[in-house]
C-alpha cells in the first residue's frame, strides 16, 4: 500500500479533530507545508470533520498571496508566520477546544507553564516530567497582521516551541510533519485538561 501524501495525512487529521469535537461549528484551520514557497491551508467556513483535498488552498508563505484567488482561513497570516519563524515546521493545527479556550482566559501571565506531567514527553525533545514547558498566551485580536507582529516580536525575545494560545480563542500548534503536529496537539490537549482539573481541585 502506498504511503499517504502529506495533504492526505492532513485531511485524515482534520477528520480525527472533527470527530473529537475540537473544531466545532466550522472553527479552526489547518495547513501543511507544500515546499519552500507554498503551504496548503484549509478554506474558510468549512466543517473540519468533512474536509477533502479540494478544500485546501495554496498560499505563498512569504506574502500570504493566493494564486487561485480563493478565500483561505481568516488566520492565514498566523500559519505563514509559523512557517517563516520555524523552518522545520511542516504542519500547523489550530483548534477551538474547551480546555485551551478556558485556560487561555484563566492564565493571566504571558505563558501557561506546565511541569510535573509524564505526558510532557509526548512533545518532541522533552525528556523528563521535571522540565518546564511554557506555552505562550497572546491576547486575541481580529487584526491578524497586528497579532502576527506581536507573536513575531515575542519569539525574537523569548524563543518557544510546540504552540501558543490565544485568549478566549484556542490553541495553535505545529510539528515537523502532520504526524508530529497531531501528536503535539493530542499531548497538549491532555496536559491542558490535567492542568484545568488541577486548578479546579486546588480552588476547592
TrEMBL record:
A GO biological process held by the record: L-methionine salvage from methylthioadenosine
Keyword Amino-acid biosynthesis belongs to the record: yes
UniProt domain Class II aldolase/adducin N-terminal: residue ranges: 8-196
Reactions listed under catalytic activity: 5-(methylsulfanyl)-D-ribulose 1-phosphate = 5-methylsulfanyl-2,3-dioxopentyl phosphate + H2O
Keyword hit for Metal-binding: yes
Residues annotated for Zn(2+) binding in this entry: 94, 96
InterPro entries noted in UniProt: Aldolase_class_II_sugar_metab (IPR050197), Aldolase_II/adducin_N (IPR001303), Aldolase_II/adducin_N_sf (IPR036409), MethylthioRu-1-P_deHdtase_MtnB (IPR017714)
Cofactor remark: Binds 1 zinc ion per subunit.
UniProt keywords, alphabetically: Amino-acid biosynthesis, Lyase, Metal-binding, Methionine biosynthesis, Zinc
General function of this protein: Catalyzes the dehydration of methylthioribulose-1-phosphate (MTRu-1-P) into 2,3-diketo-5-methylthiopentyl-1-phosphate (DK-MTP-1-P).
Similarity comment: Belongs to the aldolase class II family. MtnB subfamily.
Protein name: Methylthioribulose-1-phosphate dehydratase
Lineage: Bacteria, Pseudomonadati, Pseudomonadota, Gammaproteobacteria, Enterobacterales
Amino acid at each position: 500500500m502506498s504511503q499517504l501524501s502529506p495533504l492526505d495525512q492532513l485531511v485524515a487529521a482534520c477528520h480525527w479533530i472533527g470527530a473529537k469535537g475540537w473544531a466545532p461549528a466550522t472553527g479552526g484551520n489547518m495547513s501543511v507545508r507544500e515546499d519552500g514557497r507554498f503551504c496548503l491551508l484549509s478554506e474558510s467556513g468549512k466543517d473540519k470533520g468533512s474536509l477533502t483535498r479540494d478544500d485546501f488552498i495554496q498560499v505563498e508563505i512569504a506574502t500570504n498571496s493566493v494564486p487561485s484567488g480563493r478565500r483561505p482561513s481568516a488566520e492565514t497570516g498566523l500559519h505563514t508566520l509559523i512557517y517563516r519563524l520555524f523552518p522545520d515546521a511542516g504542519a500547523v493545527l489550530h483548534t477551538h477546544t474547551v480546555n485551551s479556550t478556558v485556560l487561555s482566559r484563566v492564565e493571566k501571565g504571558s505563558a501557561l507553564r506546565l511541569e510535573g506531567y509524564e505526558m510532557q514527553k509526548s512533545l518532541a525533545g522533552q525528556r523528563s516530567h521535571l522540565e518546564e514547558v511554557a506555552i505562550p498566551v497572546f491576547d486575541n485580536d481580529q487584526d491578524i497582521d497586528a497579532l502576527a507582529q506581536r507573536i513575531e516580536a515575542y519569539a525574537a525575545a523569548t524563543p518557544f516551541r510546540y504552540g501558543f494560545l490565544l485568549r478566549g480563542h484556542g490553541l495553535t500548534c505545529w510539528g515537523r510533519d502532520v504526524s508530529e503536529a497531531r501528536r503535539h496537539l493530542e499531548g497538549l490537549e491532555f496536559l491542558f485538561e490535567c492542568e484545568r482539573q488541577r486548578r479546579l481541585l486546588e480552588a476547592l
